[in-house]
Amino acid sequence: MQGVLFDLDGVITDTAKFHFKAWSRLAKEKLGVTLPASFESDLKGISRIDSMNRILKFAKMENKYSADEVDAMAQYKNELYLKEIGKLTQTDIFPGIENLLDELAVNKVKLSVASASKNAPFILEKLGLREQFDAIADPAKVAHGKPAPDIFLEAAAKIDVDPTKCVGIEDAKAGVEAIKSAGAVAVGVGDSNDLKEADSVVASTEELTYSVLEQAFRK
Ligand code: G16
Ligand code: MG
What we know:
This protein is α/β, with parallel strands linked by helices. It has two domains: about 5-15 and about 90-219, 3-Layer(aba) Sandwich (Rossmann fold); about 15-85, DNA polymerase, domain 1 (Orthogonal Bundle), CATH 1.10.150. Helix content is about 45%, strand content about 10%. It has nine helices and six strands, in the order βαααααβαβαβαββα. The chain has helices at about 15-30, 40, 50-60, 65-85, 95-105, 120-125, 150-160, 175-180, 210-219; strands spanning about 5, 110-115, 135, 165-170, 185-190, 200. Strands 3-2-1-4-5-6 form a six-stranded parallel beta sheet, sandwiched between helices. Strand 4, helix 8 and strand 5 form a beta-alpha-beta unit. Helix 1 crosses helix 4 and helix 3 (about 50-60) crosses helix 4. The longest helix is centred in the middle third of the chain and has 19 residues, at about 65-85. The protein is globular and about 50 Å long. It starts with a strand and ends with a helix. The model has no long low-confidence stretch (mean pLDDT about 95). The structure holds 1,6-di-O-phosphono-alpha-D-glucopyranose (G16) and magnesium ion. The site of magnesium ion has 9 residues, from loops. It comes from Pediococcus damnosus. Its EC number is 5.4.2.6.
């Protein structure tokens, strides 16, 4: 194992609750609809514009607005979201992650972030983790979102490690699929029934250690 490719939301910290809060406010204010709680998990790993389109579809307003109006709404959501994530601190890092990053650094494993979020650099800065990563893949540069492999291929390329020498960590089914199609070894965090395609699954981030990743890689 020469590289580890990290998903952000659900692996390093919980941003889904802030995305949901911002989308809910946008939906209420601009579209007059209330989003069901299921949208919090349904939008995980889905790009900003695809999330916006799913919400318009839910509101039965998919043809009501011009592309510029839709962009403006997505931008407004991002402003609301930025206010929320501006409050993130080191205490919001999931248990076990700081220890894992230290262990990987000691073992000279390169670390890259494979998040669909354009705000990933800002989030890592707020968490005090920016310096721990060798690279952050830019989602604006990839053609297809998860479950396509693109963001994981880009994350591996940025640390100059072949994807087959990497372990990817994900909490979402589409993310695990993306890791596998990129040719990397997938470690899932969460329910093993949901993440069946992963090479190895742990119940929580606390269980993520260098040795667990190395064992998954050698399997
Ligand atoms: C995250 C979230 C998604 C969000 C996407 C884009 O993905 O899970 O809900 O829509 O990023 O975020 P932004 O609007 O900040 O660019 P990931 O891949 O970190 O789980
Ligand atoms: Mg995730």
